[in-house]
Amino acid sequence: MYLRVLQKFIIVLLLVIMSIILVVATVDLGIYILKNLIQQNIDKFSLDNLGELFGIFLVILIGVELLQAVKAFLQEEIVHVEIVVLVAIIAIARKVIVWEFKDLSAFETFGLSAMMLALAITYFLIKHTDSKCKMYSKIDGEKEVEKEKEKEKQ
């Protein structure tokens, strides 16, 4: 009992802290963009800086997805693997956007590609398995209804 209460307290505290960080980061990003638009610093939005700017967007998106994963764990006490895999995909996508490929070796590029492929396959299998489970549970539910109707007729 004590551990369960402690666990819930820690999770709620993490949700609050993550929410504050995400709000501050989003406001900071908005202020940065507005300030540069008002001051007409268009060079801040050049192709050289665009990757970094999108990287910041993706970091905030990763935070939102992590927030969703923690919230789901708090409500259902189940780790949603799909959300965790999505966070990993977004994190690798962020690396792809931010990295300078001219500075990467072929081995690093291959490793990044292998991770992305593995995560994509994992996500596909999770979605494919989930849809099959839902289909079978629907079929099983329909069979149960038919059995109950037959019992009522007898």
Keywords:
154 residues, mainly alpha, 2 domains, 4 helices, extended
Structurally, the number of domains stands at 2
Helix content: over 70%
User: Which spans of ≥5 residues are poorly predicted at pLDDT below 50?
Assistant: none
Q: What Rg, in angstroms, do the CA atoms define?
A: 23 Å
How many strands in all? 0
Largest β sheet strand count, sense and barrel closure: none
Class by alpha and beta content: mainly alpha
Instruction: Supply the number of helical segments.
Output: 4
Q: Determine the mean pLDDT.
A: 80
Coarse morphology? extended
Strand residue content = under 5%
Distance between the termini: 48 Å
SSE string, helices as H and strands as E? HHHH
Describe this structure in words.
- The chain folds into two domains: 1-98; 100-154.
- The protein is built from four helices and no strands.
- The protein has helices spanning 2-38, 47-76, 81-98, 106-153.
- Helix 1 packs antiparallel against helix 2 and helix 2 packs antiparallel against helix 3 (81-98).
